[in-house]
Amino acid sequence: MPLLDKTGCLLILMSLFLLGNGTLTLADSPTWSQFLGPHRNGVIETKDLLSKWPATGLDVVWRVDGGVGMSAVAVSDGRAVTMWNSDRGQVVTALNAMDGSVQWTTPLAPSYENAMGDGPRATPTIDGQHVFAYTGEGILACLDLSTGKKLWSKPVVREMSGRPAVYGMTSSPLVVDDLVIVTAGGQGKAVVAVDRKDGSIRWTAVDGMSAYSSPALLNLGGESHVVAFTAGGVTGIRPSDGEELWSYPFKTPYDCNNATPIAVDGKVFISAGENHGCVMLQVTQQGNRYTVDEAWASVDVKSVMRNEWQTSVFVDGYLYGFDNVGSAGPVTHLTCVNATTGEVVWRKTRFGKGNLVAADGKLWITTMAGEFVVVQATSEEYSELGRQSVFGKTRQNVSLADGYAFVRDDSQVICIKVKQ
After folding, report:
1. If you classify domain 73-210 with CATH, what class do you get?
2. What is the pTM for the complete model shown?
3. Which of 35, 116, 162, 271 has the fewest Cβ atoms nearer than 10 Å?
4. How far from the centroid of its chain's Cα atoms is residue 29's Cα?
């Protein structure tokens, strides 16, 4: 019996034709399902992405109208999910990742307005068949991924007797086993874990204001720590019960600890703007307690890395990130730093404000000017591979999934083909 009949061969030929003409296909497995990617560090392990810019320009697979907001795009199970302000308030919207068609839209709260820009700030998290979203005023909600049905909603900041951060709540939900973790603010309640099934409070930790960073789950010395960068500094928390295991004070003007802590060869890297700087922390377990030491520190006006609202990425021994000069000033350098020594390896001066992630040995950069830029992730020199204006002004990082880049501005969501 032949393996394929004429009909089968025809279907294969049609599929190859469609793929060759830019039709998007996504794997069934989760990809960029949360803020800063699968490991919440801005790095995804993938290959065969563009190594040079197409002569005719990038292939924009689709672009659809959206709304104002600072939420990036989470991609999983054939859906691209984000948040924005609409005439129905703050909504979570799921788009078909193949063609951008709207699958569902669910309102969570009234539209969020703020002097630093309107719309929700946090990026939704997709975990299994659930979406977890956090509004600008601090309402945490759980939705069904397939239908958008709201399963529960909890005003976390209000219930913790906290005060919303001046520029809005920006904590993208972190899912750890059966917990959903966000920052909230309050006495002993700057970090809050709720039960993913019903939103009930499981534990709270850390005094003070929340700041603008999202918590991360880091492996330190073989143990998992929820690491939260709040207004007063960085704290390691035991996920199971919320016990504070270690802390390091790092107070930044205006509570602007914005970047997410990342793991660097078993250490913890934190950075903040407002001319504050960065520190590489060595966290060591000694019996039943932990000690925290500075592997190196670079603070104040001559710091090597001052992440304003972007998280640096760690690739092959080097940190790549945006060094912002001054107090939210206009001068921003794209910088490569030796992660072992803290020394600057190269600096592209006055690159401008933007955001970046890393994949396939490259930095994938979105600029506030609306450009999509790709730079070789090498310590040798700044090596730009391509640059094109594709979208409007944006602060969001690009989300990479199966050879496609998803990014949004204040009016549209865009899908770009980036695989070779």
Report:
1. mainly beta
2. 0.92
3. 116
4. 19
